[in-house]
Write a structure and sequence with these properties.
Elements lengths: L1 E5 L4 H12 L6 E5 L8 E4 L2 E4 L3 H6 L4 E4 L3 H13 L3 E4 L11 E2 L2 H4 L9 E3 L3 H17 L1 E10 L6 H11 L31 H13 L6 E8 L6 E9 L5 H9 L4 E3 L11 H4 L5 E8 L6 E8 L3 H17 L4
Parallel strand pairs: 1-2, 1-5, 5-6, 6-8, 7-8, 9-10, 12-13
Antiparallel strand pairs: 3-4, 9-11, 11-14, 13-14
Helix pairs in contact: 1-10, 5-7, 5-10
């Protein structure tokens, strides 16, 4: 497979290449793609050196698949050009997620919807991915009515500039470039992305709309509060789920323990529960703190943690590519 990684010099792009190697994706040629500013740089990958090229050059090199992680503006301009050249695009930005003509895919849930005609495939938002991986198997049995989610999202979700800001603040350097309007170290920022007219942020509404699309059920109600926290390693979520049908906690645990991509870490007696440090570098979604909501029936509280650069971005995109290859769709 000839694989283009668009945004190869960024945080997620670097993670993409790492995941491609770890999962033994059969790459015969890597085509690292970035802006003109980065063109000509050399990237070491699997013991070889590859030259960074611009998007136009990459199209001419005819990769089998192009994994995009270079932002929505780049995706809107270039994904259709790659697709028109017969190249399958897996896009990690928000550009195509809610386009009714494009599939929004988490392989554990809805990869079966993909066909050879799907030339632009959207990778969901990181916070949505980890939540639906845990919720979908429960939805299949108990049918979800409503989800209330509060997120605790790592600075890595904003990129290198945010990581640098936090580490500079931690080291007493306060005159560097700012990714956030406010100090992030020793602080929480209850805003991710821009505010919309309804008072929610774009990130919060992404979780609402994307959950319905991925789980193929418009009746699921989702309300979210998304918060940036000064941690590395992964995103965490406190999730309150109201079902239409009654459940037993033992059954919930059993379903999650057998769900693809999920690892249950739930032993409060021995202080075992998911944390970002545990999720860092892992592809699985960690779930714990399973307990009934004692204020109303048929309602579950749970805590969901995953590495946002991996399952929340790179790993999910590579899994889509693996599925396409396995089914002969590339």
């Amino acid at each position: 497979m000839k694989v283009a990684v668009v945004g190869a010099t960024g945080l997620v792009g670097g993670e993409m290449m790492k995941v491609l190697t770890e999962r033994n994706f059969p790459i015969t040629e890597l085509i690292p793609v970035a802006s003109e500013k980065s063109a000509g740089k050399i990237i070491d990958f699997q013991g070889k050196q590859w030259t960074v090229v611009v998007a136009e050059t990459a199209i001419a090199m005819q990769p089998d698949v192009a994994i995009f992680s270079a932002g929505g503006t780049m995706s809107l301009e270039w994904a259709p050009k790659f697709a028109a050249a017969g190249i399958t695009v897996i896009d990690n930005s928000s550009a195509w997620r809610m386009d009714p003509t494009k599939k929004l895919v988490v392989p554990e849930i809805n990869a079966d919807a993909l066909t050879a005609e799907d030339k632009i495939i959207a990778n969901p938002n990181c916070s949505t991915i980890q939540m639906v991986v845990a919720l979908n198997p429960l939805h299949q049995k108990y049918k979800i009515k409503r989800v209330v989610v509060s997120t605790y999202q790592s600075v890595t979700g904003t990129g290198k500039k945010a990581v640098d800001q936090m580490m500079n603040e931690r080291n007493g350097i306060l005159d560097g470039e700012m990714a956030y309007k406010y100090k992030i170290d020793m602080n929480l920022i209850p805003q991710i992305d821009v505010f919309l007219e309804n008072g929610y942020t774009k990130e919060e509404m992404k979780m609402t709309h994307e959950t319905k699309k991925i789980m193929r059920d418009e009746s699921i109600l989702v309300t979210a509060t998304t918060v940036r926290v000064p941690v590395m390693g992964g995103h965490s979520e406190a999730v309150n789920v109201e079902f239409e049908n009654e459940f037993e906690l033992a059954d919930i645990r059993n379903i999650l323990e057998n769900a693809p991509g999920v690892v249950v870490v739930d032993d409060p007696t021995n202080f075992k529960y998911p944390m970002p440090l545990d999720a860092h570098g892992k592809d699985e979604v960690l779930v714990g703190r399973l307990r009934r909501d004692e204020t109303q029936p048929k309602t579950l509280n749970m805590w969901i943690v995953a590495d946002n650069l991996r399952k929340g971005a790179a790993t999910n995109a590579v899994q889509i590519a693996e599925y396409l290859m396995e089914k002969g769709l590339l």
